[in-house]
Structures are given as structure tokens and as C-alpha cells.
Amino acid sequence: MTVTVDFDAPADQVKSPAILAHVVLRTANFKEMVNFYKTFLGASAAYENDFLSFLTYDEEHHRIALLCVPGTGPKVPTSSGLEHIAFAYEKLEDLALAYRQRKAKGILPVWSVNHGPTTSIYYKDPDGNMLETQVDNFDVPDDATKFMMSKDFEVNPFGTDFEPEDLIKRLRAGEDEKSIKKRIESGPRGIPDL
């Protein structure tokens, strides 16, 4: 095999990874967290024992891992660290269907919001970690970036709340996804207290 990379060449920027492979969550509530994530993601265990679980729901061998470490304390919501993990759906109807399926299993959202770039439904896991489920509102990523550079986004970078059941009614009525995904401007908004 011939190496074609010049490892000593100067670069202005570090080579970006191909994908975000997985997230590992440390927990003291191992069984409850494993059951939650299996249900929440429609996931299965690629490997699991009494203190470690590798969960998969797509082509990757694991996307979420849960690790029970002795001495782990409860999450401190006001500490620095990860704010949320986001999971994307391809279509608005898939986001709505997953919401309904979770609701039927007792998993209810804590916040539903049209951010502008995405339509998002947020949940909390048993440890209090925030999870975002979302669908892109723009077909082209550059259009989402343009929206984030707009005056509307500067005034309100958090978005406009919506009711998931209303979203389902609009989908059932045959309303075009583009009109449902268009953010209704609501003026200035501070950081939500979730």
C-alpha cells in the first residue's frame, strides 16, 4: 500500500471527521436509561452487560452507549457540558409519527418549537439529558444558514412554539410540508427555561 498523504504538510484547518459516530452517557440509572433509549430510538443492543450497553438503530454498530460507573451522582442541570443530543428525521410526517409512538409509550415532549432551520420536538431522558428530534425546514443546508443570518433569527434565535397535535392535524388535512415548516415570527424571545 502506498501512502499518498503528506502528514507533514502545513494546513490552515484540521481535517474534519466524516461523521459523529456515537455518544456515551454516564449514568447511575443504568436499567432505566437502557430501557428508555431502546424505546425512544427504537434501538436494540449490539452488546450489553450489567454496566455497559451499546445501542444501535441504523447502519452504525452503536450510536448511543450507556455506562454505569460506581459513584456517579445526579445530573446538575446548571453545570457546563452537553446541552442536548439531536436526532434527525427525513420527513415531517416521520417526526410526527415518532412523537405519537413515543406518546403512546408514555414519553412526552418538554418543548416543541420551530427554530426556523428545523422543526423540533424535545424530550428529557430519565437522567434529565435533553434530546431533540428534528426535521430540516430547508431542502438545502445553505438556505438554513441564510435564515440563521437573517434579521428574524437575530431577533429570535430560539424559535416559535407549536403543539405537535396541531402539526398532525395540518398534515392530515393535506397542508403542504413547506407551509407547515415555515416559522411564524413571534418577535424577541429569551432563553427558554426547560
UniProtKB/TrEMBL annotation:
Signal peptide: none annotated. GO terms for molecular function: dioxygenase activity. It comes from the Eukaryota. This is Glyoxalase/Bleomycin resistance protein/Dihydroxybiphenyl dioxygenase. Belongs to the glyoxalase I family. Keywords: Dioxygenase, Oxidoreductase. The keyword Oxidoreductase applies. The keyword NAD does not apply. Residues 19-136 form the VOC domain. It holds the Pfam family Glyoxalase.
